[in-house]
Amino acid sequence: xxxxxxxxxxxxxxxxxxxxxxxxxxxxxxxxxxxxxxxxxxxxxxxxxxxxxxxxxxxxxxxxxxxxxxxxxxxxxxxxxxxxxxxxxxxxxxxxxxxxxxxxxxxxxxxxxxxxxxxxxxxxxxxxxxxxxxxxxxxxxxxxxxxxxxxxxxxxxxxxxxxxxxxxxxxxxxxxxxxxxxxxxxxxxxxxxxxxxxxxxxxxxxxxxxxxxxxxxxxxxxxxxxxxxxxxxxxxxxxxxxxxxxxx
Length: 248
Fold this sequence. Notes:
alpha/beta; Rossmann fold; 7-stranded mixed sheet; 7 strands; 21% strand; transferase; methyltransferase
């Protein structure tokens, strides 16, 4: 289940891509399939081990084209172990709401992104997320849980303040919002509640089969109740005079 829309955020073969806070690796895998040179970074060692295994399995199965590379590694989003201008593309999906110093994370992403490079940021959407918080303290009051809820204009403003130029945005995963409302209502750790199990079964069926009816329904509902908010931005090239001054 991809949150970034790669029709709006194209990945070209050979692009150097950083999936920051990669989690289970869903976006990293898609970039690898598209021929990119992918680095998937996360602080969770267990998830990095799993992503490494999946990269190897994809290579063995021939799912990645010739020239594509993929590396998974542990790392700190506030101190990325890469030189300036290392990547053509940076993706950070459903991560910034967990990190107290979100401005510091944006600054590091800008540092490692080359001028002219592109970035995709996704976070939980304000409205659906407020419902989750209202229904359950356990949803967010856990170690490593969500510590803030972004309004769309607030996130876009922070992206601009970091020196990036936003060029598009959208909402995603409308069909997943009710699932999390049910989880919060019946208990975030209670997967046995009938409404939760039934809705989860529907979501799995939708992800596997991708029927036209649910695709159209989600597309229609995304602007109203999409679970995630996505912003795309570029890192501007330095003006010629600034480049000359920096070189002196």
